[in-house]
Write a structure and sequence with these properties.
Tachylectin-2, Chain A, five-stranded mixed sheet, binds beta-D-mannopyranose
Length: 323
């Protein structure tokens, strides 16, 4: 279904080399946002330092394997307009719409976690645009273009309080907006499946448009007795023009923690997909490579490769349905 690239993990803490005290000898680098744009793969890395501070750091690559990593964190502007004292801005997801990058992030604040939207011309600086809703949410992910004239987003309310005290959620909702400021809820897209691999869920990368609908990669958490949750990745298919409508959803995960760098680390047993891109110029065909970057054990960044022809059947759809 997906294959770990032989060079995975492609970015580890040793690759962050900077004399900037904020990025010196960091603890971990994981859950990147990313996009393919104008011949380059651009990632925004989530870097956590030994003060347990979080920074976003830009990394660029031509081949998706070797990255040039900035020596300074991304500058974040406008957070004085965010209504609460906050601690961390993390888990970015990136799209490019109408001449600018739009980046959604989770922001941990005094009021809980919020999904915050930023815009950027270059991904060196992010400017605050607003907050999705005044409700605890995480894993806010924009669709990569307007759908029937409107912007769309998937997000996951944090309405589940785990036995470990961690706020997570069992429902992914869709939202639509005319202006990126006022968002209207469109309904529940998917719910967690109690007792199976995806009990708690959250969207992964921005969805990919296929001939059959939007391919939506998400993470699912299996809560495992008294232990920590096991984070895996899976796929579902959403309607092309009404993306709050679920067309199909696979039974099996497509990636689960097995490699040492996924089972051991800061948070063991985590694969957390956040980027799915076609790393070459041109349309996404059935056999075009897809690169999936994912946080592994909240410690490093893994790369898995696949194609639509391989992945789509895991969403439960019958490829015979293709015209
Ligand atoms: C989730 C988020 C992610 C993290 C994952 C595993 O709830 O906080 O950022 O990678 O847990 O710790």
């Amino acid at each position: 279904m997906v294959k770990r690239h032989p060079h995975s993990p492609v970015i580890t803490r040793e690759d962050i080399s900077s004399t900037d005290p904020r990025l010196f000898d960091v603890t971990s680098v994981f859950n990147p946002g990313g996009i393919y744009h104008q011949g380059q793969i651009i990632l925004l890395l989530r870097v956590q330092n030994r003060g347990r501070e979080t920074y976003l750091v830009k990394a660029t690559s031509r081949d998706g394997i070797e990255f040039d990593i900035a020596t300074k964190p991304v500058e974040i502007r406008g957070m004085q307009d965010f209504p609460y004292p906050y601690y961390h801005i993390y888990d970015p997801r990136i799209v490019y719409i109408e001449g600018r990058y739009l980046v959604t992030c989770a922001v941990d604040s005094e009021a809980g976690c919020r999904v915050v939207l930023f815009e950027s011309e270059d991904l060196d600086t992010l400017s605050y645009l607003g907050v999705l809703s005044d409700e605890g949410q995480r894993n806010g992910v924009l669709f990569p273009h307007r759908i029937e004239g409107r912007y769309w987003m998937l997000s996951r309310p944090n309405d589940h309080l785990g036995a470990d005290g961690v706020r997570s959620g069992t429902r992914i909702l869709a939202y639509a907006s005319d202006d990126l400021c006022a968002w209207e809820e469109q309904g529940i897209v998917m719910q967690g499946r109690s007792h199976f691999w995806d009990e708690l869920i959250g969207s992964g990368p921005p969805p990919l448009l296929t001939e059959l609908g939007w391919l939506h990669i998400y993470h699912g958490v299996a809560t495992h007795f008294g232990g920590g949750g096991i984070y895996q990745a899976g796929v579902s298919l959403l309607d092309a023009t009404e993306p709050h409508k679920l067309l199909a959803r696979g039974v099996y995960n497509i990636l689960e923690p097995r490699a040492d760098y996924e089972t051991m680390g800061q948070v063991p047993n985590v694969v957390f997909p956040t980027v799915a891109i076609n790393p070459v110029e041109g349309p996404l065909g059935m056999d075009t490579p897809i690169y999936i970057y994912y946080g592994a054990a909240d410690s490093c960044i893994g790369l898995a490769t696949t194609t639509l022809r391989t992945l789509l059947p895991y969403s439960g759809i019958d490829l015979g349905a293709l015209p």
